[in-house]
Design a protein that fits this description.
It is a single chain. The chain is of the alpha+beta class. The protein has a single domain, classed as Rubredoxin-like. 22% of the residues lie in helices and 28% in strands. It has 2 helices and 3 strands; from the N terminus they run E-E-E-H-H. A 3-stranded antiparallel β-sheet has the order 2-1-3, covered by helices on one side. Strand 1 and strand 2 form a beta hairpin. The longest helix has 11 residues. It is flat and about 40 Å long.
Length: 67
C-alpha cells in the first residue's frame, strides 16, 4: 500500500443518480452514470466537501428521497 502523505493531485467531486459521491482525478474522463458535482481541489478539500454533502450512505432509491 502506497502512503500518500504529500498528495499534490487535483481532484473533482462527482455524484451519480443515486446521490453517491466519489473523487475523480482532474483530467480523467467522467465515467458513465456520473456527473460533476461542481467542486474540485486537493484530496482533503474534496473529501471534506463529500463529508458535508453525503451524510446518508444509502443509495437514494433506498432512502425514499424524492429530491
Amino acid at each position: 500500500m502506497r502512503e500518500e502523505t504529500n498528495d499534490t493531485e487535483r481532484y473533482r467531486v462527482v455524484v451519480n443518480h443515486e446521490q453517491q459521491y466519489s473523487l475523480l482525478r482532474e483530467g480523467d474522463a467522467l465515467p458513465a452514470g456520473w456527473r460533476d458535482a461542481g467542486a474540485g481541489g486537493g484530496k482533503e478539500q474534496c473529501l471534506a466537501l463529500i463529508g458535508e454533502r453525503w451524510n446518508d450512505m444509502r443509495p437514494r432509491s433506498l432512502r425514499g428521497d424524492a429530491n
